[in-house]
Design goal:
Keywords: Hydrolase, Lipid metabolism, Membrane, Transferase, Transmembrane, Transmembrane helix. This is LRAT domain-containing protein. One of its GO terms (molecular function) is phospholipase A2 activity. Pfam families: LRAT. Strands 1-6-2-3-4-5-7 form a seven-stranded antiparallel sheet. 35% of the residues lie in helices and 22% in strands. The chain is built from four helices and seven strands. The chain has helices at residues 69-73, 93-103, 117-126, 132-163; strands spanning 7-8, 20-24, 29-36, 39-45, 61-68, 77-80, 107-109. The chain has 166 residues and is of the alpha+beta class. Strand 3 and strand 4 form a beta hairpin. It is globular and about 55 Å long. The longest helix has 32 residues, at 132-163. The chain folds into two domains: 7-129, endopeptidase domain like (from Nostoc punctiforme) (endopeptidase fold (from Nostoc punctiforme)), CATH 3.90.1720; 131-166.
Length: 166
Amino acid sequence: MASGEAETLQPAEEPQPGDLIEIFRAAYQHWALYLGDGYIINLTPLEEGQGASVKSVFSRKAVVRMQLLKEVVGADSYRINNKYDDNHTPLPVSDIIERAQILIGQEVSYDLLGSNCEHFVTLLRYGEGVSEQASRAIGAISLVTAAASAFSVLGIINTRSRNRPF
């Protein structure tokens, strides 16, 4: 399902093996990769047996788990979202699934900005980890840092101006 826009899951439409699944949590999106037969692969925090939580954002390690999509989604909503297909070529589905299955049960590094759940599933699907969510966060952090630096410089200039004897 190659599309630049995300597609909302309809009852008649079932995810296909290799599809990216975007799950809408309260404050963020969790990402998984559909394996087939109702199962997904995703990253979960070490200290939790099931699902993802806000705790996972602060963790440095995660576990790759195969779980039922409906259990991971719970009361949240989700959609099939192969949004990177327009500028990244998906690997063959058999390769995606094989790569995913090798990782089940493995402990992996986790970093919100550089190695998160979206990076993980896009690495499986495309061979390259991509995260729009992380890019937006890095952009926001950069903007705040630049603004703070500007205000700091302005404060120093203002202080120097006030300390001049003339």
